[in-house]
Amino acid sequence: MKIVAVTACPSGVAHTYMAATALKKAAKANGAQIKIETQGALGIENEITEKEAREADAVILAIETAIAKPERFKNKPVIQVPVSEAIKDADAIIKKAMSLISK
Q: Model's pTM, two decimal places?
């Protein structure tokens, strides 16, 4: 199972990276592959390529601001949550993404 995620908060500093860390840990615990792009004060880091977006089974957007290049994820199952939810309950978000894949 391949999941891609973008995290972005309005200031693009701490919470963006906290959400990315939480999602990465939860994906590993649930046996899912994940690539996480952060969009923040330093710009886009660990950018998801068009190919990676195409090959993804599901997309998680843990965002509280507009993101660059959202068109990469059209025609994919997308879960959008606030950054704070990704920090607090990343496990539930990963499990929800995995349930979309198995349908």
A: 0.95
CA distances from 30 to 8, 68, 80, 103 (A): 23, 28, 19, 17
What are the pLDDT digits (tens) for 12-68? 789 999 999 999 999 999 999 999 999 988 899 999 999 999 999 999 999 999 999
Q: Are 7 and 16 in contact (CB under 8 A)?
A: yes
Q: Which of 64, 67, 66 is nearest to 53 (CA)?
A: 67
Q: Considering 3, 5, 8, 9, which one is annotated as catalytic?
A: 9
* 9 a catalytic residue: yes
